[in-house]
Write a structure and sequence with these properties.
Keywords: Signal. Helices cover 34% and strands 29% of the residues. The chain is α+β, with helices and mostly antiparallel strands and 383 residues long. Helix 1 (5-22) crosses helix 2. The protein binds 2-acetamido-2-deoxy-beta-D-glucopyranose.
Length: 383
Amino acid sequence: MPFACVAALGFAALAGTVAIATMGVPAFTQPVGFRDTVGGPGSPLAKQVVDGMITNVILHIAWNDWKPWSVEMAPWWTEDFIYDFNYVGPWNFGPTKGLRAWYEGEHLHFNAAIPDSQWGNFIFAATNTTATSVTYGLARWSGEFAGVPPPKSHPKVVIRDLDFYVLEGKRISINWCLLDVVDMFEQVGYQVVPRGPLKSEGYRAPNAMDGSPAPFSSMFTQEDAARSEEVWQAALHDDYDVGTGEGKWWAENINWYGPGGVGTAHSRKDYVKHWLQPLRAAFSNLERSTDLVVCEGPYCGAHFYMWGTHTGEWMGEKPTGKRVPIRCGAHARIVDGKIVEGWLQVDIPRVFHAMGVDFYGRAREMALAQAAALESYSQAADQ
Ligand SMILES: *[C@@H]1O[C@H](CO)[C@@H](O)[C@H](O)[C@H]1NC(C)=O
């Protein structure tokens, strides 16, 4: 359930065209060499396609009416595309195949729980065949999310969201999507995992004026992307495979927007101390399996699983000895051979599920206890 500001631009341009036509202004001829593509000048094919598709999602066109919705959406997807969302426990759907299964799976479930969410991409990197975006959403949490009720006030939440896409020609064949459930629950007072060691500063846009969303495609070459990818692959290898564990591809001073349960780091030292070291201490025989790496200009993303044996305490959970999948979506801004900013999401409910811990059940109990406490407080206040 992706997003975008660029999509809004496309819409404004369309409205402009209509206005000109109805005012009877003479036909406008495009200057030679100027192509106002969806996704912005110079954008690779996958960026254009995803941007086109996402316009529909952003505008919530016929979101709960299968027929018109499918007419809008079908052209962007292959027949049997895979949509693969977070682990959602009692909602009971895994990766779905095809438009109808997505509609009845994540799409209707999410939009009923968190209706009318407003999405803004801040990273949007692509090649001709792959794309990735990092997005925040703003909305009111209004219905049960995976069996967990919102507070009665239906509070506003900031949703950390990311997507990875694989295309076949002009259609999307795979969409991996993650959002930070731990962080969203924490925002309303459901502290399902221990509070992170670092103060969370949220999910922030890159500290660089190189596009919003970044990167602005025509500012960068394919050589820029190749240089970034070399560093990114080396960093993934060093951080998660058999490397130093010292985060040696990271600059000394960074902005790292870590997942709920960890927090925001401003130094390589804190990144290592509060993310890499606890991970390596808790899981033995880590093995990384990478689905997709995408780089454009200074920006890279990776969607991967690490499998590890749970032999040490992690996020408050005592070792279970189980082999668990740690699903991650990571992004980086790379300057002069070092990562200067990073964003990370981890599908913690999935990790907990593999440990035999009912993440959503625990959250639901907290939600019900919070609601009951508020209820008795307001009854006492009434008397
Ligand atoms: C994408 O395809 C176009 C047209 O074939 C080509 O000019 C461009 O270099 C390609 N871009 C990338 C990032 O591969």
